[in-house]
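Retry 2 of 3 after timeout on previous attempt. Resubmitting structure tokens to design endpoint.
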């Protein structure tokens, strides 16, 4: 089994400025970070130059893995193209290897045939934007019932239809994998793994939302460890990136302790 490496998504501690966030990654032994373009009052939304963010990461010895994210990527239009180009330029300048691609999640674009055509069209348009800048696109199916791209299998089919494996990879998100009810894993086309847990015993699967996503521990209901063992057993050598959205995690005064405990739990349970 591959010895896993760890990364942290900035959503875990959204109030930390970029340099403090990278220092948190270093403190808990993570080698990588995922930065975001949806954090008010923080880079990237506050206009912080990419070169400044890159320098802060390098000073902490942290590799920027992705920018999260190009939202609604599978509703391709002129506005989405402009967003994609701007984000790809920033990703190239900051030294990120990939951009996360998040699908429509508002109940629209879900019809059979329509969603597949929309997905393929978006991938065709995105491919040269990413490839020209040496980037990959990480497709992130969401397990919510209203999402227009729930299944990794459908994402893989679309990537193969355009012969796009040189540019596109999957995000395996343990939360969304559980919600979607998909059993098949695709380690050979996975670029990164997002890790979070749900521990509330009263929640039905259909009622699980981002705010319920906490750090993984022994009370996890998502089958994180089974998913991770299976991926690592077949040779997946990609970072495990912690991505809890729960306010109880995001508002921790010092998340290093709980985060280190969760990383240690995951490592010892593999």
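Retry 2 succeeded. Sequence:
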């Amino acid at each position: 089994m591959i010895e896993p490496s760890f990364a942290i998504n900035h959503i875990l501690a959204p109030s930390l400025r970029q340099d403090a966030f990278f220092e948190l990654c270093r403190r808990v032994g993570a080698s990588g970070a995922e930065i975001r373009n949806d954090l008010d009052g923080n880079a990237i939304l506050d206009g912080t130059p990419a070169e400044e963010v890159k320098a802060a990461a390098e000073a902490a010895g942290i590799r920027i893995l992705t920018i999260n994210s190009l939202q609604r990527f599978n509703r391709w239009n002129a506005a989405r193209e402009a967003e994609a180009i701007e984000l790809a330029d920033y990703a190239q300048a900051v030294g990120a290897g990939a951009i996360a691609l998040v699908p429509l999640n508002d109940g629209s674009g879900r019809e059979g045939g329509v969603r597949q055509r929309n997905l393929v069209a978006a991938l065709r348009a995105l491919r040269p934007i990413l490839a020209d800048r040496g980037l990959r696109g990480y497709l992130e199916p969401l397990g919510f019932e209203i999402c227009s791209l729930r299944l990794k299998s459908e994402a893989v089919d679309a990537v193969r239809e355009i012969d796009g494996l040189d540019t596109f990879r999957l995000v395996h998100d343990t939360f969304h994998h559980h919600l979607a009810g998909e059993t098949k894993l695709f380690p050979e086309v996975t670029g990164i793994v997002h890790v979070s847990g749900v521990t509330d015993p009263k929640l039905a699967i259909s009622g699980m939302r981002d705010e319920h996503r906490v750090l993984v521990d022994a009370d996890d209901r998502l089958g994180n460890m089974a998913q991770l063992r299976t991926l690592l057993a077949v040779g997946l050598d990609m970072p495990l990136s912690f991505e809890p959205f729960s306010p109880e995690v995001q508002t921790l005064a010092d998340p290093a302790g709980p985060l280190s405990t969760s990383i240690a739990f995951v490592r010892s349970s593999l």
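Attempt log closed. The first helix runs from residue 18 to 27.
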